[in-house]
TrEMBL record:
Keyword check for Aminoacyl-tRNA synthetase: no
Highest classification ranks of the organism: Bacteria, Bacillati, Actinomycetota, Actinomycetes, Mycobacteriales
A molecular function GO annotation: hydrolase activity
Family: Belongs to the THEM4/THEM5 thioesterase family.
Annotated protein name in UniProt: Acyl-coenzyme A thioesterase THEM4
Subcellular location: Cell projection, Ruffle membrane; Cytoplasm; Membrane
Length: 225
């Protein structure tokens, strides 16, 4: 796994996010506008030229490969390229997940045209991705280290309409490195999707001890500096 410890303070992260999140929201706006625009072909071609120019501008300085996952010395994970929650990823739905120390996670989200499957309804794969992420975060916050999805079971009770949704996930029990979680996606009329998962805290992740060692090395560098 692409894992890196970065030396950023909470203030520096907040500063970076204050620039990145509005940019990502603009990209989401672009995606939605492209799907729903009814301008003529000349306007579409002109827009494409402008978009291509912006892409070329951003490509003048690029990270090789994907964004990866960066951890700060406070052990906060920065997964800004993540498909479900990446702060730099315009295809990630605008989820703002709230962690609860007792192993729960909750989220309100509004899904627009970019997340459609059947007409007017959320794509089943998108629902699975959203609840997978929330279940993983519930397990991880309860566990204190990130968990991977081992087994995910999704039940589609009724169609999920595009628009405002609320989601919740909770830790049910833990057996060794396995964390059993369940969750749901709801409209104002109740659940549309329920899910259960076995999340596994992988043995190949850097252990808390390894992370603490890296953190101590960074602190020692500070002392020398
Ligand atoms: C704040 C951070 C928030 C992070 C949230 C993340 C949310 C997103 C989650 C994802 O989408 S992760 C991406 C999708 N998942 C994967 O790509 C996982 C691919 N599979 C693996 O990497 C490994 O197979 C896995 C980490 C799941 C397990 O490998 P390990 O080598 O660590 O486990 P091991 O084989 O030693 O088994 C440990 C226990 O887990 C059980 N286990 C292993 N694989 C399992 C599985 N697939 N399903 C259920 N249980 C599983 C296994 O039976 C055993 O149970 P027991 O202790 O009772 O014997």
């Amino acid at each position: 796994m692409n894992f890196r410890l970065v030396d950023l303070s909470a203030e520096e992260i907040a500063q970076q996010l204050s620039v990145v999140e509005p940019l990502t929201d603009s990209v989401r706006g672009l995606i939605d506008a492209v799907i729903r625009t009814e301008v003529d072909d000349d306007e579409l071609n002109a827009a494409r030229e402008q978009i291509d120019a912006i892409v070329a501008r951003l490509r003048t300085k690029q990270k090789p490969g994907s964004f990866g996952v960066q951890f700060t010395r406070e052990l906060s994970g920065l997964s800004w390229g993540n498909a479900a929650v990446g702060a730099r990823n315009g295809i990630a739905p605008p989820m703002r997940i709230v962690h609860h120390e007792d192993g729960r996670a909750t989220c309100d989200v509004e899904l627009g045209a970019a997340y459609e499957g059947p007409g007017g309804l959320v794509h089943g794969g998108v629902s699975a991705m959203l609840i997978d992420q929330l279940l993983g975060e519930a397990a991880s916050v309860g566990n204190g280290l990130p968990c991977f999805t081992g087994t995910l079971t999704v039940k589609y009770l009724r169609p999920t309409p595009l628009g405002p949704l609320s989601m919740s996930a909770e830790t049910v029990r833990r057996e060794g490195r396995k964390i059993f979680v369940r969750g749901e996606i709801c409209t104002a009329d109740g659940p549309t999707v329920t899910a259960e998962a076995i999340m596994v805290s992988p043995k190949e992740l850097p252990s808390r001890d390894q992370i603490m060692k890296l953190r101590a090395e960074l602190a020692a560098q500070d002392g020398q500096g």
